[in-house]
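Recap from last week: sequence in, structure out.
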Amino acid sequence: MHRFIALFALMLVFCWGPGLSWASGQGQDPHLTTVADLELAGPVAKPAAAYLGVPAGEGAVRLSQVKAEFLLVEVFSMYCPYCQAEAKNVNALHALLQKSPAAARVKMLGIGAGNTPFEVEFFRDKYAVPFPLFPDAEFACHKSLNGPGTPYFMLLKADGAGAFAVVFSHLGPFGDPGKFLDTMLAKAGLK
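Predicted structure tokens:
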């Protein structure tokens, strides 16, 4: 019983810790207009590398290495109950994107704020996430993004100089994947 209480208390700390939970009131939408060329921790598995057009292996990759005009980035946490609940919709969004004419121009990836490789792998497996996820155990990417709550979605467009313009962003669950995709593509001028 004591283990259960300790585990529950630990989950509460992670779910409602600063900058991680959308409903916590912490870590609000940062309203960024540009994003630096973030470094995504490796290893990058072959399927993820093939999808993103980056080298596979143990090394880190940068956003600028991804072969796409636009990047749809989800900032999530394994401990965020909203991220867990929204995983089905995010997977559906990815499936719709893959079937759309914009699939060749938009790639999707996730950054696990404060999550270790083990935690990211656990989240990927539990929720059958079909797109690449990267750990951010030290919150380096999360801090660079002004510490948004989770889940947080950004559509980025490469500026050609190693930075990215934020074309569209959304904090919290988005609900209907089709409507969200339509809104996002319209903002990007892809619809």
